[in-house]
Amino acid sequence: MATELPDWVRLQKALSVEAQRGYTDLQGNEYRFSEFLQVSLEAPPGNLLSADLRRWQSMAAQFGSYAQLTQQQREELVTDARKFLLDMERVCSSDRTSRNSEGRKPRQHRLVADSQAPVAQPIKATSASDNGTAANLSLDGGLTQLVGPRNAARLGKLGLYTLYDVLYYFPRDHIDYARQANIKELEPGETVTVVGKVKRCDCFTSPRNKKLSILNVVLKDNTGQIKLSRFFAGRHSSRGWQEMQKRMYPIGAIVAASGLVKKSKYGISLDNPQLEVLDDGSTIASMNVGRVVPVYSLTEGVSADLVRKAVKSALPATELLPDPLPAKLREKYGLLELPTAIAQIHFPEDRTMCEEARRRLVFDEFFYLQLGLLHRRQGQKQAQTSAVLAAQGELIENFYQLLPFKLTNAQQRVIGEIIADLAKPEPMNRLIQGDVGAGKTVVAVVAMLAAIQAGYQAALMAPTEVLAEQHYKKLVSWFNLLHLPVELLTGSTKTAKRKQILPQLETGELPVLVGTHALIQDPVNFHKLGLIVIDEQHRFGVGQRAKLQQKGEAPHVMTMTATPIPRTLALTLHGDLDVSQIDELPPGRQGIQTSVLSGKDRKQAYELIRREVAQGRQVYVVLPLIEESEKLDLKSAIEEYQRLQDVVFPEFTVGLLHGRMSSAEKEAAIGSFRDGETQIIVSTTVVEVGVDVPNATVMLIENAERFGLSQLHQLRGRVGRGADKSYCILMTHPKATSDARQRLNVMEQSQDGFLIAEMDMRLRGPGQVLGTRQSGLPDFALASLVEDQEILVLARDAAEKAIAKDATLDRWPLLKVELENRYQRLLGGAIMT
Ligand code: ADP
Ligand code: MG
Fold first, then answer.
1. Is 560 exposed, middle or buried (CB count within 10 Å of its CB: 0-12, 13-18, 19+)?
2. Are 256 and 194 in contact (CB under 8 A)?
3. Ligand 2: distance of its center to the CA of 690 in Å?
4. What is the mean pLDDT of the chain?
5. Which SS3 state, helix, strand or coil, does residue 27 take?
6. How confident is the model at residue 226, as a pLDDT?
7. Cα-to-centroid distance, 471 and ligand 2 (Å)
8. What's the mean pLDDT in 397-403?
9. I want to staple 601 with a disulfide (CB 3.0 to 4.6 A). Which of 360, 423, 597, 795 is the partner?
């Protein structure tokens, strides 16, 4: 059998997504990234000659051991593979079509003509583009027909291979030349485009930093002149590169510069402006003059004009795009037709059309994702049968009797939602969001008791030993009274203890197990696992959750998080989960008095601490990660600890807690804080997760400006857990900007985790809020989770309605196909299926 050519586009996409996600060996629906690469590279194209073939095979093998590579090695391999595959693709396709037609040197080892290869697209002599006919275009067609082979290869660097790719390569902005600003009238704070003639241009190495190149361009229009600077770090510092930059902006050339107007002591300028040569003085680029012009993200060797030209000539092919959205739905939500939207997003008639086009395309991005998530959830529900866990029973009743308090309305509501889920033969997959202290543990216990009552086992998994231990202690205190055994299993559980726990788990004698990742390891087998509770679920990967799920037969899963996230994020990330919110704190909790102080008020803060400790209360002092290096962080934590103990509070006992301690040391540190032996604990952010000491009333956070608001909220939640008035002091560094201080004021004004998360997202962007490590956010081309909440809600609504109408989606065949393409692309990892 002849080997088929690999799917270059998918390969490149997988590689580029992996690179974007920081080389995490992304998990797709079916494969991990590395597996996908291995599988795809398994059969090299038919007739590679020896050197290429060897390289190909060695690359495939390296992806086989990707998991063992360091971050750096992964990066190198991926970068290498991207280049190599681009080369191979060019070789393979030029062999079939325009071999040597672009005057490339013949390759030394030539491919033998491949008779199985698809017939080359005929290259049209005339350009189909401007007379607006799609007759000889095809969406899957390559770009050679539009821009010639050499340019087509250049566009490959942007991941653009087909007309479809180009049509969906949306501009990141538009420049409205009709509305450009005059240089003399610029006001700081506006984002503008100015167009002017280059008066001077220079590019040189920064006198202060050898690795930095500075490009200065002075532009002049009829009203005045402006000096624009751009800074390039790293490999751009060579002399040759600088000369090339200078040549790009020759004196007299007409350049458009866009960016945010800023004012400094050197006068008015634009912040990191985007520069584009409109006219090098010889020709007028007519496409761009006097209208709204798209601005695309570019890369080395691909010019703005090339992308525009490709898009322009691909536009007639929009006619070929079917619109998968049913007309009714389009009308209901007031959306443009797809071909119009695509055409208008690139070259809009005016601002309004541009916005309408964007609205339609953003809707699409959200809609297919929501549809995919809901479709997947529906599929899971139907595919698996779970145990029906009786909700009524004396265990739960007895537990309620034991509680020294009445459940809040929110707790009762959420328990109701969970119990309804457990009574169904489809697996529950529910996320419980609730602010710190909202009482999630009680809710989890009720669910566990339901499982036990029905004769099943329950497991609770927490991300750290500290947290697992705390859950364990709490559960023991309640379960003992109910005469139910509970055990704890973590990495530091002694062998003897393990040997005792594991058999009891297998026989079912042990109904509840609490633990860390240790739970998902191999020798751990349950008798009948009916319910899994995962705390701080965002700290676990999808794989780890799945592993625990495999320990039972379609067990119900309940995840909990004390990190409320804004609704847009929740829908995007967890659209396939049911979400419950415990949005009410138990009564009698006092607000935590929060103040933002700067360094000079330190004395005041220490006085408060002294007063509180003297009254028998306890204090947290939290230090942020200051340096990139763990060693330095450790040093700063230790130094601060010593300073507080020896100099500031010699009369009190100060403790230390940091991430590099062994878990026994950590447990000892937390234990003595919990027991009240330690009065002040100096800690890195390891306390963030779940440490519960109700007697602690002061939380002092150093360099608070370095934290995100959501994280500060988490930290603040460590105090105010008892009946006493509590305080949170956000100490800012003397050098913190006023912006940073202002951001912290949100903390003074609000205690509502959901609101704070929303502010945090607006201020820092969704990726930062989630933390870069595990964000898992899809790559939207246009949609913004901050700006487009309204459209997301509409899209979710539309998706829910569609699924309710026909969960198979069979009545909309086009929609179904589009969903498959889109959803997978959107989720990145899913392309590896
Ligand atoms: P979290 O949601 O942060 O996990 P916990 O479940 O740890 O919160 O509860 C915080 C504290 O509040 C615990 O000491 C718990 O016993 C107590 N608590 C929970 N629910 C209530 C309630 N309805 N009334 C009073 N106290 C409660
Ligand atoms: Mg908790």
1. buried
2. yes
3. 6
4. 82
5. strand
6. 94
7. 8
8. 92
9. 597
pLDDT over 60 at 110, yes or no: no
**pLDDT, tens digit (0-9, with 9 covering 90-100), for 752-782:** 888 888 888 888 777 776 664 445 677 788 8
DSSP SS3 for 175: strand
462 lines ligand 1 (CB under 6 A): no
CA of 436 to the centre of ligand 1 (A): 9
SS3 418: helix
Residue type for position 548:
L
d(CA 262, CA 260): 6
Q: Is 60 in the pocket of ligand 1 (CB under 6 A)?
A: no
d(CA 387, ligand 2 centre) in Å: 26
Regarding the beta carbon of 348 and ligand 1, being less than 6 Å apart is answered no
788-810 pLDDT tens trace: 989 999 999 999 999 999 988 99
Helix or strand holding residue 707 (H, E): none
Q: Indicate the residue type of 177.
A: Y
Tokens found for residue 340 = 């119009």
Q: Is 722 in the pocket of ligand 1 (CB under 6 A)?
A: no
Is residue 33 within 8 Å of 7, Cβ to Cβ? no
Tokens coding 457? 């086992």
Specify the amino acid at residue 608. Answer: L
The beta strand positions in 29-138, using DSSP E, are: none
107 confidence band (pLDDT: 50, 70, 90):
very low
H-helix or E-strand spanning residue 645:
none
Q: Round to whole Å and give the CA distance between 56 and 65.
A: 15
pLDDT of residue 629: 64
